[in-house]
Design goal:
Chain lengths: ~110, ~110
């Protein structure tokens, strides 16, 4: 299996622009997670889905952030409008049948100038 | 709520030295415990896990034992290599914490040749 796939790997954008991050989970996995990693705050869970349904979005920092999972093989995390403080590495992870053992993608490094 | 505390880094060792990275947890029930490793520029990878008290997880020469009496899950390796240089995250899931995985802050390990 190819593992969790994320795109783009790097994104540089200007403040105010819309940013869309993409994730393809491992085939057959029931759970999908979006995390944000920064030096200051470490690894933060933003939202997770079970069978394409959002279960807990309490970690989404503001209304500027939204996530969707239209089918079992694709999810997006959108930031609109983006701000410099959104600069971070965003990880997608998936797990099979239970959220405990997660497989992470390589991450998207977002820089907002 | 549930939490994970791990020793601050960085930890710097010479090749073939013995490694211990301390991890303690707080949980209301009986969580599963994990160690994840993050190599530079990559996502987290599951290194080992233990699901109940006195279980020992092991992988690639690393070991950790689930100690309920001391609420600890310390990571050990008898002889580290330069290729072990990475950030190590202790994590827990379950145990009254719902479906979220709680990650520690991470401990950076440098191994010198």
């Amino acid at each position: 299996d190819a593992g969790v796939i994320q795109s783009p790997r790097h994104e540089v954008t200007e403040m105010g622009q819309e940013v869309t991050l993409r994730c393809k989970p491992i085939s057959g996995h029931d759970y999908l997670f979006w995390y944000r990693q920064t030096m200051m705050r470490g690894l933060e869970l933003l939202i997770y889905f079970n069978n394409n349904v959002p279960i807990d979005d309490s970690g989404m920092p503001e209304d500027r952030f939204s996530a969707k999972m239209p089918n079992a093989s694709f999810s997006t995390l959108k930031i609109q409008p983006s701000e410099p403080r959104d600069s971070a590495v965003y990880f997608c992870a998936s797990s099979l049948r239970s959220p405990d053992e997660q497989y992470f993608g390589p991450g998207t490094r977002l820089t907002v100038t | 709520g549930n939490s994970v505390t791990q020793m601050e880094g960085p930890v710097t060792l010479s090749e073939e030295a013995f490694l211990t990275i301390n991890c303690t947890y707080t949980a209301t029930g009986y969580p599963s415990l994990f160690w994840y490793v993050q190599y530079p520029g990559e996502g987290l990878q599951l290194l080992l896990k233990a699901t109940k008290a006195d279980d020992k997880g092991s992988n690639k020469g690393f070991e950790a034992t689930y100690r309920k009496e001391t609420t600890s899950f310390h990571l050990e390796k008898g002889s580290v290599q330069v290729s072990d240089s990475a950030v190590y995250f202790c994590a827990l899931w379950g145990g009254g914490g719902g479906f979220k995985t709680i990650f520690g802050a991470g401990t950076r390990l440098f191994v010198k040749a």
